[in-house]
Specification:
mainly alpha
């Protein structure tokens, strides 16, 4: 039989085995059901003490100042460190800084979906890239998920905010769209770039589809003596602003890229004219060139050429698009590019209308419709 109620909430009772059991209600669940907390103890006094301590702890939590987004984000960031690679963890800091500038001092429980939507729209208006906006949304979801799991908030407001449509974002993102150089632009780059280490590196990116991180990690022994192949087995990672050597992006990224015969002299040039440790050597002995430094050099190299001012990564888009345009099967392209799945390869294709028109002509109907 139930015994004396604990201050009007729940009850305490002695069970058949002689122990004491108590229950009290502590609010309601998200489904509107009563949230019941149970306690057990050997004596009634111990049981009542447990109930008092629980109430005091809950009251102290209620009286504590609200947890701000910035405080919780810092805690989430510290706890997240063991789960990702060092370069990824370091890169997260810049996205986190952007989020804290927007929400840092606000109580995390008071941030609404419309606040997050307004923030993402502001990033778009300010010309931030689609990639950065997507990273902000993804990080907000993770931070609020952790807050929900730790009962700081009843539900995750970021999950109610739908991502922007890819085509709409690309149209509005002020020139941040990733693209491929046209065949005419490739001809200009091959003809107009200087015959030096930078110029030949750019040419090699166009005919091998290497990631910039992979190019910067190359050593002489990674290139065959005749320039016929390039062994991709490592990549540059930026950790706290400094370049470090690590594994490539994925397991499939470890690969050997064959170099077309007419372009093997480019690979040989890099092999013979590169640094003693890394071909793209930093001014600091033993360190590779930073990704940002190469991007700046790339930007300067094409600044006065009659081509669109795309990024180094667009050389990779160009490589994949050109292979597909020449009828290379998608499975083979994915293998050459080091992609884990065909869906990723598909996002790199930039076909023009003429290419699509020629493709449908291959249907080859020769008779009248039946």
């Amino acid at each position: 039989m139930p015994g004396k109620r604990a201050n009007g909430e729940g009850y305490v009772t002695r069970t058949k085995n002689g122990k004491w059991r108590g229950q009290l209600m502590d609010g309601y669940t998200d489904e509107g059901k009563r949230k019941i907390i149970s306690f057990t103890a050997d004596t009634k006094a111990e049981l009542l003490q447990k109930i008092r301590e629980y109430k005091e702890e809950r009251q102290s939590v209620k009286n504590a100042p609200p947890v701000t987004f910035g405080q919780w984000a810092d805690q989430w960031y510290a706890d997240y460190k063991p789960q990702v690679a060092r370069s990824t963890y370091s890169g997260y800091r810049f996205t986190l800084k952007l989020l804290k500038e927007a929400f840092g001092d606000r109580p995390i429980a008071e941030i609404l979906p419309m606040d997050i939507s307004a923030f993402l729209n502001l990033l778009l208006d300010e010309g931030w890239s689609q990639s950065k906006i997507s990273k902000c949304r993804a990080m907000l979801i993770q931070i609020f998920d952790a807050a929900e799991q730790n009962q700081l908030i009843p539900r995750n407001p970021a999950r109610s905010v739908k991502p922007f449509r890819r085509d709409w974002m690309e149209e509005l993102a002020h020139g941040n769209k990733k693209d491929a150089f046209t065949e005419e632009e490739v001809e200009i780059l091959f003809r107009e770039l200087p015959d030096d280490f930078l110029g030949n590196s750019i040419r090699l990116l166009l005919v091998t589809g290497m990631r910039v991180q992979e190019l910067l990690a190359l050593t002489a022994k990674d290139i065959a003596s005749d320039g016929s192949t390039i062994d991709i087995n490592k990549a540059v990672k930026m950790v706290d602003g400094k370049p470090e050597i690590g594994p490539p992006k994925s397991r499939n990224s470890v690969r050997v890229i064959p170099v077309p015969k007419e372009y093997r002299h480019l690979a040989v040039y890099l092999r013979e004219h590169g640094g003693r440790i890394f071909l793209w050597q930093s001014s600091k002995i033993g360190e590779p060139c930073t990704i940002e430094h190469f991007r700046n050099l790339f930007r300067s190299a094409i600044a006065n050429l009659p081509v669109r001012k795309l990024t180094p990564h667009c050389c990779r888009h160009t490589y994949i698009t050109m292979l597909q345009k020449r009828g290379v099967p998608m499975e083979t392209i994915a293998r050459l590019a080091g992609h884990s799945n065909l869906a990723t390869t598909g996002t790199y294709l930039h076909q023009d209308l003429d290419t699509l028109a020629r493709a449908v002509e291959k249907l080859g109907y020769t008779g009248e419709s039946q």
